[in-house]
From TrEMBL, chain A:
It comes from Paramagnetospirillum marisnigri. It comes from the Bacteria. Coiled coil: none annotated. Residues 1-30 form the 4Fe-4S ferredoxin-type domain. The keyword Iron applies. Gene3D superfamilies: 3.30.70.20. Its cofactor is [4Fe-4S] cluster. This is Ferredoxin. PROSITE patterns: 4FE4S_FER_1 (PS00198), 4FE4S_FER_2 (PS51379).
UniProtKB/TrEMBL annotation, chain B:
PANTHER family: FEMO COFACTOR BIOSYNTHESIS PROTEIN NIFB, FEMO COFACTOR BIOSYNTHESIS PROTEIN NIFB-RELATED. It comes from Paramagnetospirillum marisnigri. NCBIfam families: nifB (TIGR01290). InterPro entries: Aldolase_TIM, Di-Nase_FeMo-co_biosynth, DiNase_FeMo-co_biosyn_sf, MoaA_NifB_PqqE_Fe-S-bd_CS, Nase_CF_NifB, NifB_C, rSAM, rSAM_sf. GO terms for molecular function: 4 iron, 4 sulfur cluster binding; lyase activity; metal ion binding. This is FeMo cofactor biosynthesis protein NifB. PROSITE patterns: MOAA_NIFB_PQQE, RADICAL_SAM. Residues 61-312 form the Radical SAM core domain. Pathway: Cofactor biosynthesis; Fe-Mo cofactor biosynthesis.
Length: 62, 494
């Protein structure tokens, strides 16, 4: 159960990194990635990374 | 005496109000007050803070340079005039991507620029996202830079949503200027501009989101005012959506202590991929912009010289040297030399005094020679310093001045570069210029070629090249007096 970031869509703004309550998101070589083992999909709440990401369709079901 | 000719002496020592106060009626009310000019009706303690700030003081923008560093890419709202794949379209031009820097890289860049550009007086963080939402990067940058350049002024721009959370820290960082972009005070209108906001871990859309944004903006502004931090409000004018509503915005922000209101035209082009660009929402014409600015002139001080810089802009307003200072062109850790900036300040003090004298002389000449004459708008080609010092062919924009029997006053800028008016080719340059000069039939240039001069003439515009390198006010007053003067020297009754 984890989300993933489509690298081509990501603007590398870093907003999702701030917001993830589980520190699952980090910058790797210029773009951001979600560490699947750390992502809990926000435990059933609205997913924060998707809520803040400015690009529709950038963060999707992994 | 109109507001743009308050001599520098009035800034440093107190004078009777009657001498300093701008003329009423045709002078101040219909033209640019306060910091569109020199001190104007601005209280002394505020003028002291803004007089060397090119973005806040119309006079300073002739002399001082600012730079922005793009250290804050994360944003917490979505605007219909912005495509997040590029920079924020409000604080920087849309469709451009700034060089994103870490706070350490930003400090390196600032030192390199300070060594080469002695005019530098302000460092701003305006994105490309939101400086307050991305506060970690913003505050780290200020910390790094102030270690090396403690006398540099800092300013930040924000959409206001995260602002109330950081007002105390702003005061600690000695940031005495904040710009908030406020496009509405009515959430119904806000919903047409902001599809969503992200607040406290959740996304809010429509009127609900716009209401939260509005409330946070007002709260942030009020708290800044309490702290004595100067706040400028930027509004993007969107025809058919918030154009007339900006009068209400102006009243609301004035009541909460904003010291300056800057109305900027929406820049809209389908090629930028913004929601407004794709929906065909147009930006305002120069005349429409001026109309709103004139209506607002009685409210909060209005700013007319904004150029909508990019988030990584470097240089005097209207100029962008950022390509000369990309990271690969900057030494590892340049050492800072304060001497050029100190010397430059001395020169500016002298030049400002000289300029103010010239303006006073020009006014006296108008008072003596012109009795009743129509107010005219004229366009100027200038590179700064308050002089007519640019070749017509190099002009990317025009400074617009208003002249009547009471004096010569700055009125605004009109862009005429290909980019901003929608990316036309060179062939259409003349069309672009003519569109920018709508309603104006005289343009002052340092020099102009025969062909363009004839082309302008065919379009009913006279290019005046008789006053190269003169102060703008001196030249415009001389030209106006010659054309509309009714009294001759001998016939004039004092
Ligand atoms: S869904 Fe939640 S936990 Fe997973 S990466 Fe996004 S913010 Fe973090
Ligand atoms: S918020 Fe979206 S665009 Fe920004 S870094 Fe995260 S995935 Fe990329």
């Amino acid at each position: 159960m984890a989300l993933k970031i489509i690298a081509d869509e990501c603007t590398s703004c870093g907003a999702c990194e701030f917001e993830c309550p589980n520190a699952a998101i980090s910058s790797k070589g210029g773009t951001y990635v979600i560490k699947a083992s750390a992502c809990t999909e926000c435990d059933g709440d609205a997913t924060k990374c998707q809520a803040v990401c400015p690009v529709e369709g950038c963060i999707v079901q992994g | 005496m109109s507001s743009n000719v308050v001599p520098l002496t009035s800034i440093t020592r107190s004078r009777p109000v009657s001498e300093v106060a701008p003329a009423v009626g045709g002078g101040c009310s219909s033209s640019s007050c306060g910091s569109s000019d020199a001190q104007g009706d601005m209280p002394a303690h505020i003028w002291e803070k803004v007089k060397d700030h090119p973005c806040y003081s119309e006079q300073a923008h002739h002399y001082f340079a600012r730079m922005h560093v793009a250290v804050a890419p994360a944003c917490n709202i979505q605007c219909n005039y912005c495509n997040r794949k590029y920079d924020c379209a409000n604080e920087s031009r849309p469709g451009v991507t700034s060089e994103k820097l870490t706070p350490e890289q930003a400090a390196r860049k600032v030192v390199a620029v300070a060594n080469k550009v002695p005019q530098l007086s302000v460092l701003g963080i305006a994105g490309p996202g939101d400086s307050m939402f991305d506060w970690r990067h913003t505050s780290a940058t200020f910390r790094e830079v102030s270690k090396v350049l403690p006398d540099l002024k800092f300013c930040v721009s924000t959409n206001g949503l995260a602002l109330p959370d950081h007002v105390d820290e702003l005061a600690e960082h000695n940031i005495d200027h904040v710009t908030i972009t406020i496009n509405m005070v009515d959430p119904e209108i806000g919903a047409l501009i902001y599809p969503w906001i992200y607040f406290k871990g959740k996304r809010y859309t429509g009127v609900e989101g716009a209401r939260i944004l509005h409330e946070r903006q007002m709260e942030g502004l009020e708290r800044l005012t309490e702290k004595g931090i100067l706040t400028k409000i930027n509004s993007v004018m969107i025809p058919g959506i918030n154009d007339q509503h900006l009068l209400e915005v102006n009243a609301a922000i004035k009541a909460r202590g904003a010291f300056l209101h800057n109305v900027m035209p929406l820049i809209s082009d389908a090629a930028h991929g913004t929601a407004f660009g794709l929906s065909g929402q147009r930006g305002p014409k120069p005349a429409e912009l001026k109309d709103i600015q004139d209506k607002l002139a009685g409210g909060a001080n209005l700013m007319r010289h904004c150029r909508q810089c990019r988030a990584d802009a470097v240089g005097m307003l209207g100029e962008d040297l950022s390509q000369d200072f990309t990271l690969d062109k900057i030494p590892e850790m340049p050492s800072y030399d304060p001497e050029p900036r100190r010397l430059y300040r001395e020169v500016v003090e002298r030049e400002r005094a000289d300029h103010n004298k010239a303006v006073a002389v020009a006014e006296a000449e108008l008072a003596e020679t012109v009795e009743e004459a129509p107010r005219k708008l004229v366009a100027i080609c200038t590179k700064g310093g308050g002089r007519i010092n640019q070749h017509f062919g190099h002009a990317q924009e025009f400074q617009i001045f208003e002249v009547d029997a009471k004096g010569v006053r700055f009125s605004g800028h009109r862009k005429a570069d290909n980019y901003c008016v929608g990316g036309y080719g060179d062939d259409d340059k003349l069309d672009v210029v003519l569109a920018a000069l709508e309603g104006i039939d005289t343009v002052f240039v340092a020099k102009i070629g025969r062909c363009p001069k004839d082309d302008l003439k065919k379009a009913g515009i006279e290019a005046v090249d008789l006053y190269p390198f003169e102060y703008i006010e001196t030249a415009v007053a001389a030209w106006y007096a010659e054309r509309f003067g009714t009294r001759t020297e001998s016939a004039s009754i004092a």
